[in-house]
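User: For my dataset I need records formatted as: sequence, then structure tokens, nothing else. Please produce one.
Assistant:
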Amino acid sequence: MSGILSRIFNSCKNNPWPLLLFVLGAIVRIVYIGSVPPGLNQDEASIGYDAYAILHYGIDRNGVHLPVHLIAWGSGQNALYAYLSMPFILLFGLTPLSVRALSVFMGLAGMFFFYIIMKRLFPAKAAGIAAMFFIAVNPWHIMMSRWALESNLLPTLILIAVYCLLRSVQSADSRWTYAYTAVLASSLYAYGTAYFFVPVFAAATAILLLYCKVLKVRTLLWNALLFVLLSLPILLFIVINHYNALQAVTTPLFTVPKLTTPRVEQISSVFGGQLLQTAAGNFREFLTVLWSGSDGLPWNSISWYGYAYPLALPFALLGLVVMLQAVRKDRRKEAGRVILLLWLLSAMLMAFITTVNINRINIVFYPLVMLSAAGFIWLYSKIKPAGILAAAAFAVMFGSFTIVYFRDYPGQIGPSFHESAGEAIRYASRNTGGNVYVTDDINMPYIYVLFYERINPSDYLDTVVYSNPGGAFQQVTEFGRYRFGKPAVLEENSAYVLSSRSGLPAAFNGDYTVWEFANYVVLITGHYEGAESSQAVPEGSGLINGGFEEGPAGWEFSAGTGIAGNNPYSGTALAYLDAGADKTVSQILNGQPEPGEYTLSAMASAGGSGGKISLLVNGTMQAEAELTAGDMYQEIRLPAVTLNQGDQADIIITGGNGWINIDEVRLKR
């Protein structure tokens, strides 16, 4: 182990650029991950809630015990992302950050394996720098790493499998072939397009290894057996859901579920009519995406920058020519490059049999970025000034992309990701004892209630009502006290989560209050004392509602914070902050405290370090303490601060690296 660390240290010391570029790529993939993209896509909420439900209750929201594939909406969702995200959910709770953490981790792993693969294919020092640069600044890879779409697991799993295969080819060590087979088989649980890609790629690489005489027939047979054993549950799933007469299979270790409609058959032209015509149309669309760089979906690419910037495609074509020439000279010696070309070919063949968008053909982008890097490496080796100029152009485009992504993109994608829907649902749930109506302007609104309220799946199953049971995308009309859609008549003592764009309904005859969020408003009918801060009685220090029992009264909440009731230290309510230093809960003490020394304290639990509670006097920091990470509440007490007559005191609670729960905030003399 010490030898490996020593080699890594020496490598970084002799050539620090790959490490610096990796750090740059990591920063762009990690910073503000809980809030950019803002909100949560319905598929993120779905995979996150099912992971939470299986982790804590052993069943998903459809009541299936340890499914090898999630039923989700009805037509299915791949399960591997849910299982791999469970450690993050266990550590940080169910939040957008914990659900996206796996994507970030796989993004960082993707950069690392991309670099070491390219180093094996192109050993030159400059080649390693170029490889890390191209993957670190790639817009497709950055965007893929920042949200929790389960299909985004597949490309990086194949990348890891290819690394194992390269090690096997270059070292003639058959143990690496077993690692390759294991990772390849696991990728079948990541996304439905793997059902075509993996067998084609596996067969092609097996033939290559036999041709290069680095794989014995006996080893091939053992690998085939390993592949069948690992993939057997998902193979059963495919068969069971292809034939209507077959039913779900339940075992103590896993369940092979029966979907309402197998979605893989909906998106694949293999199972439809007019195969040749449909395949030709699919491939034309694939070429259009490659040429334009975009599929028109805002969560997959940002217009103009595309999946790899406009300059990348010419470099990829140049890299393809360079690799083909090298392979033609010596197929056996260049087996590693042949593997890359087989990956590209298998991915392009897949484009014939599936309707095309960027996430469905995501398996093609790693080899395309590798070809772009290869084209750049060749250009730099032949015409160094041209290579430097090209690198500068890519760097400028990366800088422009980063500015647009963090400055403009959140406002563009926010409505599609239902920004503030979770905050509105939590606010409505906490501040009424009656029914909660959630607008169907939110795509699949029920999943956001399950996610943000962390509903027990058994309670959900006992009361759920579908408008189209058995449909490919089953629509929930109600469960428990939650109703979904647009109500014809407003009820007394109920809460309504409405889209800001649709406007408020006709005036209600009784009392009502309205609370506004980024894209949604909450209308609560009946008298709600918690919404009227004037009803809250301040303590002697001027602090209002330190136990949050009167809802948000007296406090200011940023996006990603609010009132909850799931685990208060005392009473029935607490304040929560999602992860991120941009999350704050604060109060300006409007009352005039008696002069003297005051001590600020609070009960806090946190899913990570970095959170703080601060006391400012007349705008100047006077006392601050970091919140201790841990699931159990701990008292946080700040040093005493002197307050004089006329001083303005501000209490600010700031988010950290994980969720935060705050209760019983006290400012005592």
